[in-house]
Specification:
about 35% strand; alpha+beta; two-stranded antiparallel sheet; 2 strands; single chain; about 25% helix; elongated
């Protein structure tokens, strides 16, 4: 499924977006999970600055 997302980001209308992958630690188990978001390129720093 990741191939479709990456392929769509390479299209001309998708060049203004970035895929942000964040490791989030579970409070119950202590295990890490990964959350993926596709955000506008201008908002990448703001998205990474968020704590959740």
């Amino acid at each position: 499924m990741a191939k479709k997302v990456v392929a769509s980001l390479k299209k001309t209308e998708g060049k203004n977006f970035a895929k942000v992958i964040r490791a989030v630690k579970s409070e119950k188990t202590g295990a890490y999970t990964f959350r993926e978001e596709i955000v506008p390129a201008e908002l990448v720093k703001e998205t990474l600055a968020k704590k959740s």
